Amino acid sequence: xxxxxxxxxxxxxxxxxxxxxxxxxxxxxxxxxxxxxxxxxxxxxxxxxxxxxxxxxxxxxxxxxxxxxxxxxxxxxxxxxxxxxxxxxxxxxxxxxxxxxxxxxxxxxxxxxxxxxxxxxxxxxxxxxxxxxxxxxxxxxxxxxxxxxxxxxxxxxxxxxxxxxxxxxxxxxxxxxxxxxxxxxxxxxxxxxxxxxxxxxxxxxxxxxxxxxxxxxxxxxxxxxxxxxxxxxxxxxxxxxxxxxxxxxxxxxxxxxxxxxxxxxxxxxxxxxxxxxxxxxxxxxxxxxxxxxxxxxxxxxxxxxxxxxxxxxxxxxxxxxxxxxxxxxxxxxxxxxxxxxxxxxxxxxxxxxxxxxxxxxxxxxxxxxxxxxxxxxxxxxxxxxxxxxxxxxxxxxxxxxxxxxxxxxxxxxxxxxxxxxxxxxxxxxxxxxxxxxxxxxxxxxxxxxxxxxxxxxxxxxxxxxxxxxxxxxxxxxxxxxxxxxxxxxxxxxxxxxxxxxxxxxxxxxxxxxxxxxxxxxxxxxxxxxxxxxxxxxxxxxxxxxxxxxxxxxxxxxxxxxxxxxxxxxxxxxxxxxxxxxxxxxxxxxxxxxxxxxxxxxxxxxxxxxxxxxxxxxxxxxxxxxxxxxxxxxxxxxxxxxxxxxxxxxxxxxxxxxxxxxx
Length: 662
Description:
The structure is a single chain. The chain is of the alpha/beta class. Helices cover 51% and strands 10% of the residues. It contains 26 helices and 14 strands. The chain has helices spanning 2-7, 14-30, 34-37, 46-54, 79-83, 87-90, 103-115, 132-157, 196-210, 213-216, 236-247, 266-281, 308-321, 344-347, 363-373, 385-391, 397-413, 421-433, 444-463, 497-507, 509-518, 526-542, 568-595, 597-610, 615-622, 628-657, and strands at 41-44, 58-64, 69-74, 95-99, 123-126, 177-179, 225-229, 251-255, 284-289, 330-336, 354-357, 470-474, 484-487, 612-614. The strands form three sheets. The protein has a six-stranded mixed beta sheet with strand order 6-8-9-10-7-11. A five-stranded mixed beta sheet has the order 1-4-3-2-5. Helix 12 links the parallel strand 8 and strand 9 (284-289). Helix 12 packs parallel to helix 13 (308-321) and helix 15 (363-373) packs across helix 16. The longest helix is centred in the C-terminal third of the chain and has 30 residues, at 628-657. The two termini are 67 Å apart.
């Protein structure tokens, strides 16, 4: 307790002395120098002054001609008569201050009083204008101000004293945040769902830090660095935090942008300081997030110039990671979603030995991620995690966390006690399509056109083998879209040409329905046309799926090469092939819509009436989907295979643990 009280005492600082000196000088100035002598004074009129002199109270008089004032000092025996107080309160030489009009009149009056025997003191003159202290301050003040500024800025540049941070003199110091104990992060591998392969590789790093003898006895060496690569939101930084939480060794964390500074040489200095601190704390881990900010490839854009500072920082990083010096016990983790931008020297063995891919989660991994993020959420028993995982293909871990949070907000907005299945579906719709805009004004013709457009997508996808199964269709505006169709896409590792053509045909179904059943086309299909065009160019230029240009890929990974890797003749062939492919699928969509015209019109009318319809409503109009049974069989076979593989792995594990008879 006594130690805490002592800690609360204000620390000594030179600033307190500066303040006290300034307050003292101001006090002396305001009191006109009388605070030094300890004498009291008061202002009286010229008439009162004459009366006091006539009574014989004056001991001496001092006249200041420049200020037209005089000071009449009072005899000690008459102090109480004038100031109504004793000498202890007024001092030994109190006086009254008087303003006069003419010096001659004052002299004439005092001569008269002297002749009458009522004034026997001295009459003196002072030729000073203002206060002496004020004159001194005017002369010395600028010098004192400059000295004060110099002291102030020197203290600021020094960072506020020894060991201070953030000053100009400490600009070359590392900005890394250090965690002495991994447990301070409060994150372990249990908090990282999915990413089994990535977790296994980083767990080896943790195991080496805990038990290095296990590896060194066999002559192995732990990788010096591991680079986590993957799309945004997949959990790269979370994995690094889990490593910090599990390892129990000092953990230095910083961003790649922390090395970059406007001052020359600062980035390289911070790199050296970071590794100096890490060597002192070894064994330890250094984590650099978004390393592409400092590790970008060198000399790729020499025409721009002014890039030497970033290159010097990268050179310092390369030297520290694997130079003549040794970094025993220091492991570097880094994360980026732009690995193609990194310098090749940074990725070589001996620096980042391992490149760990942290990809978007598949179906089973999304289930695990949902289970993690649903723990703090009060869910209704109707919530099906398997259905939610299927509804969110292509979602990253951060997206799934956002879905769970958005669903809880939607349920709270409707004053529900628990988060229900519909809240999660609304959250997915909100994230994919945007906020509903039911108040947007549309004419009857616009609403009918949108309904025909969306019904065209639903009809075409219902009768195509490789199109994704329909979930629901809506003509409620969301974000910038006036309508939308939701599908349950299958998890595909590779995509065939037939599957891509079916998807293209279903995408063109909206424009085809507008032309067939309204007699005109609109701008509502702009997004559809953009997706179809990109898909067609990708199939022909990259995937080699063209009849005229088969088995050729013109993909160029060099972003600084502005020359196309093909001729103008080839470009013309590509354009013709793209146009041919899109027109074929457009005619195919029109043929399907003409064949199922009656059902399409019923679907459009139902959409106008309800605004949102589901797969069950489409099934009532068209009957069961022709390819639904085949899709169900494929799904059953896939689930059966997964179950058999899991059962086989469990048996192998049990056999490995059973004791053998000798």
